[in-house]
Design brief:
GO terms for molecular function: cell adhesion molecule binding. Keywords: Disulfide bond, Glycoprotein, Immunoglobulin domain, Membrane. Its main location: membrane. It is a single chain. Helix content is 0%, strand content 58%. The protein has strands at residues 11-12, 17-21, 26-35, 40-45, 48-50, 54-59, 66-74, 84-91, 94-107. The model has no long low-confidence stretch (mean pLDDT 96). The termini are far apart. By secondary structure, it is an all-beta fold. Strand 4 and strand 5 (48-50) form a beta hairpin. The strands form two sheets. Strands 2-9-8-4-5 form a five-stranded mixed beta sheet, with no helix packed on it. Strands 1-3-7-6 form a four-stranded antiparallel beta sheet, with no helix packed on it. The radius of gyration is 15 Å and the shape is elongated.
């Protein structure tokens, strides 16, 4: 069996701060590449686990490593101003995982 390969550092689209409109649904999107086996993705809001994410994986051209994308649907409110959403990716090569985060800036019309 070949050795596990840790995922690259994850990225969240729009980081470090995303400007969103209150009441308008939005998908937070986190990507990581080149993991073997594919990375497991988890989302957190201010450190608390979040459910409802949709995760997809894609095998890279080498046929061994995989890229993973996770979408977390949210509908921001005024209470989300300044909240921090984090994405953590892990596999057996990095059981503690790698993490990145984004801060929400929410406004009204």
């Amino acid at each position: 069996m070949s050795p596990a390969v840790p995922p690259e550092d994850p990225t969240i689209d729009g980081a470090p701060e995303i400007l969103l409109r209150a009441g308008t649904p939005y998908n937070l999107t986190c990507h990581t590449r080149s993991a073997k086996p594919a990375a497991t993705m988890a989302w957190f809001r201010d450190g608390l686990p979040q459910d409802g994410a949709v995760t997809t994986t894609e095998v890279l051209a080498d046929g061994k490593r995989e890229s993973t994308t996770s979408l977390l649907p949210i509908t921001p409110t005024d209470l989300d101003i300044g909240r921090v959403f984090s994405c953590r990716c892990s596999n057996e090569a990095v059981p503690g995982g790698k993490e990145t985060s984004v801060r929400l800036n929410v406004h009204r019309e």
